[in-house]
Amino acid sequence: VFIAQSRASGSHRDVEDEELTRIFVMIPKFYTEEDLREKFKMYGDIEYCSIIKNKTTGESKGLGYVRYLKPSQAARAIEECDRGYRAILAEPKNKSSESLEHDYYSNNSRQEPRGNTLPFCGQPEFCSFEKNESRIQDSVSKRLSVVSRLPLIQEQLFALFDLVPGLEYCDVQRDPHTNSGYAVIQYSTAASAIYAKYKLHGFEYPPGNRLTVIFLEDGSDSSE
């Protein structure tokens, strides 16, 4: 198993440096770079850590980067770190941090906490998060809708979405009038569905045909 580089990327070495070894994480605002390093060093050799700060006040925005020496270490950190960190692969450095923050909050589509439940409350240090920092959408579920202007093939679409752990079923349908494709995907957890949407919305399959991936209401309690 390997991670394919995008067509816009340069050499494999460039891709490995820019796209596969840096992760983007949500952290408590009081974290220092040393705190960040301490939390993530168990997953591999860290080249550097950095925290995104407000340019005017110098205060942490509650977001940071961790760069590892190897892609496998970054992948392990994403898979094994506390879910509250919302860890994802970082965009290449040529994309501004402001743009990445916007994409992170919008594409990751994290759900609004209910009551007094806040991100990271499994660990006392994370309970200092303020509610207005959550910026989370309400529409998250474990089920996704996939729309394509071309017909979809059940086996191939299943294989594509099965790259994200937790796939429960893939149901492909076809509109006989428009020849477009439609499918319903369901994962065992909302976290898997969020990651699949983040990675596969806009993905070209087959090349030249962009998939539209959105959340579908699955009837579950979104507070989970």
TrEMBL record:
PROSITE patterns: RRM. It comes from the Eukaryota. GO terms for molecular function: RNA binding. InterPro entries: Nucleotide-bd_a/b_plait_sf, RBD_domain_sf, RBM45_RRM2, RBM45_RRM3, RRM_dom, SLIRP/GR-RBP-like. Residues 21-95 form the RRM domain. Keywords: RNA-binding. The keyword RNA-binding applies. PANTHER family: HETEROGENEOUS NUCLEAR RIBONUCLEOPROTEIN 87F-RELATED (PTHR48027). This is RBM45 protein. The lineage of its organism: Eukaryota, Metazoa, Chordata, Craniata, Vertebrata. The gene is Rbm45.
